Amino acid sequence: MINEYLAVLIFFVVALGFTIGGLVTAFLVRNSKPGYEKETTYECGEEPVGGAWIQFNMRYYFFAILFVIFDVEVIFLFPWAVVYKELLSNFGIFAFLEMALFLGILILGLVYAWKKGHLKWE
Amino acid sequence: MNLSYGLERLWLWLVGLLEKLISWLGLPYIFAYTLEKIIFAVALLVFISVSVLYLIWLERKVSAHMQSRLGPMHVGGWRGWAQTIADMVKLLFKEDIIPAKADKWVHRIAPLVVFIPSLMGFLVIPFEKNLIAQDLNAGILLIFAFSSIAVLAIIMGGWASNNKYTLLGGIRSAAQMISYEIPLVLSVVSVIMLVGSFKLNDMVAAQSGAGKVWFVFTQPLAFLLYLIAATAEVNRTPFDIPEAESELVSGYNTEYSGLKYGFFMLSEFTNMLIVSLVAATVFLGGWSAPSWLSRVPGIVILLVKTYFIVFVLMWIRWTFPRLRVDRLMDFGWKILIPLAFINIFVTALVMAVWRKPTKILRIIKERLLVIL
Amino acid sequence: MDFSFISDSIVTYGVFLLFAVVAVASAFLVVSVRSVMHSALFLAVFLLSVAAFFFIFDADFLGIVQILLYVGGVIVLILFAVMLTARVSSSLLQQTNEQKYSALIVCALLFIMLSYSILISGLQGFENTLLPGGTAKSVGWLLMTVYVLPFEVASIVLLAALIGAMAIVGKKDE
User: Fold this and answer.
1) Is the C or the N end of chain C the one with fewer CB within 10 Å?
2) Which domain holds residue B25?
3) For A6-115, CATH number?
4) Model ipTM over 0.90
């Protein structure tokens, strides 16, 4: 039996061929006259001051952590959601309570972050 | 020949022919499989390219008419239908400029990384029951997984240009996309609970047939959440902070020119197409239709629903003003995510109280035995 | 030419080898390139090839999790962290120090140990063990019955991570 995910690889290769083919075609047909003025960083016509690679706000990092935590939680939700109907017919309300406890703890965390003002963007 | 499944029949006929040809040549089946997928992928690329060209034209016309303008009128004759084709040709011949200070290789690779995942999503979307590249078990999860890679490409593009506007646009875009990915995924969880499968074909089956309604009626809140989060995922107004042209020039793709810019544009519209296709499939019944429309091909029905969602997205874009960045994050974390959780809770509870807990005691005993 | 030797398992094996090469090469580049940003991007390539391994071995749900969480989540987190550092502007980075030889020995020992334990474990390759309905259903079923306690504890671990993140960012009141 063929592994179904071979199709993912085939699609990847076709997409790669399409994008690289496009870029190569563009490379062959366009003309190129590089110059100093053209290659300066665009800053609405002003001379750029300093580089862009500077230190960033901590806030972005916090939201990224928050995202990863909730992503993990969503990933735990998926296997539960997909068998929820079967779980209900076997365990009844218990299937609901299991997830309610899991989600409840995390929602508690979200509410805590909210109350502490950490969800506020500034 | 039954007209109502024309394209599906054609595809199945082609597949059968290919398999016969390959076995006649004495080659193993895997050759036929590979060829089928390549044909499907190329057909999808053609479909995507044509749709995107047409969607960009539509976007310009819709925006123009909403602002009492006419939009493109000259190229090609009727209503400027060839405008985007001309634009594409122009992009192909444009000089490619990489800023001297840029990180050249990351700058070059970012357009590839942004486009390739957006094609992958089409792998699991059923255009008709059998008109699907590969009906994977992971189904909708695959779409979410690959769309999450797009964030990476946007950070790469924004960072590699070494420009303040692109970097700000890229990082804002990333923050927005990761914040809205949670409600996007959560809104589909309730549908997965009702269906009990990740396959999009199973979701369509759960909405078609006698006594079944579209999930937009049983899960209206989920549909609304999905639509809002999807609008944010594809970076469109009112969530277009990343490319707010009045603040950040053009956001993360400011320093891109030529076809590389074209790929960013292409993937933006491809993503719009894919979120609309998913919305149409998951919430609006997909390729299935009421019995009085059974002679219409499923793919036509799916595309009509899809383009309706696309039109709604355009409508929203040209109606609402842009959200401020702090309001945007607030809206995502303090309104959409709690609402998505409430939706899941209510759905789970309704599903639970509709049955009686019959075997519960026996099961608890069994489980205790297992644990011990 | 005779192509009939190309069976499904040969193709699977070939794809596995391809991704093995990609994984090892990208992992090596992660620890050898001199820009933090490039390191992070090669790490993304490495994690994607690990996802490919999961798909090859029919653990489709884990493969999806790998992409969704590691490539789409953790790498974004790392990229944000990279942008937080001031080092990103000074693009040259020293990745090795005087301890590299001892590290090499430790790695070689670890490699031998892992290879040995894999070889004696009696695992067979490429058995088609795809469960009906995909692995997600089985995972869900086990998670909700046998492993329900670890499942609930995972929630507390996540809560701890959330509180830790808030502690890092610092105190603030609304």
Assistant:
1) N
2) 3-371
3) 1.20.58.1610
4) no
